[in-house]
Amino acid sequence: LADAHTRHTTMLALFGSSLALPDAVPIMGLPSQVYGVPAIYGGIEDYGSKFVAWKRQFAKLYKSAESETKAFAAFAANEDKIRKHNAQLGHTYTLGHNMFSDLTADEFFATKLGFAKNHTTRSTYARTTHVVNPNEAVASSVDWVSAGAVTPVKNQNQCGGCWAFSATGAMEGAYFKSQGTLLSFSEEDLIQCNSGTDSGCNGGLMDNAFAWVESNGIASESAYPYTSGLGVTG
């Protein structure tokens, strides 16, 4: 596959200096199990109308009545969580529905989180801490999106390839810092071709992805678009 797709020669630009990797941050918020629809918030009609509107908003289709019933139960459970949280005082944020509202926590973790810490870790990257010169004036904050260093939000869909998206995001920013140009790199390239140390949609590790790109380069998003999230291998 390495010869079948155009690869950017980014190894020197990306790996000319050490990369410090952040610790993984767990995603929280969805209920741990599906439960029945109570009548406390106006009965099943209230949930049903919201579910229909939500399906229309996110163009949701289900393969069977059974799968839609299961999705509705998860949606109702998440609706309960949203209403309970938003009714409480003292929070600095509110909750709302998104495209994952028909998933339980277990389903979300199984299909969206592919970080595999037990994969062989490449430990040659030095973990360094940047020490600020006390005599140097630094900005109180930096917005890398406004600076043009961040590609638009991507969607991994039904594939545990978060490790690949994490890796491309880091490399896109590093390439921008090095070359002054923002390029979108191919997650599909990593998921399909980096099979020696990572496991595609079944999980992987960013360190391994960096090492693979050092040796092989990486295709652009336009040259090798992402399809694994829809169940189609590239």
From TrEMBL:
Any one GO molecular function term: cysteine-type peptidase activity
PROSITE patterns to which the protein is assigned, alphabetical: THIOL_PROTEASE_CYS (PS00139)
Keyword Flavoprotein: no
Entry keywords, A to Z: Disulfide bond, Signal
Single GO biological process annotation from the record: proteolysis
One family name in Pfam for this protein: Inhibitor_I29
Listed InterPro entries: Papain-like_cys_pep_sf, Pept_cys_AS, Peptidase_C1A, Peptidase_C1A_C, Peptidase_C1A_papain-like, Prot_inhib_I29
Segments forming domain Cathepsin propeptide inhibitor: 51-108
Residues covered by the Peptidase C1A papain C-terminal domain: 138-234
Signal peptide extent: 1-20
PANTHER family reported in the protein's UniProt record: CYSTEINE PROTEASE FAMILY C1-RELATED (PTHR12411)
Family statement drawn from the similarity comment of this UniProt entry: Belongs to the peptidase C1 family.
Protein name from the UniProt record: Cathepsin propeptide inhibitor domain-containing protein
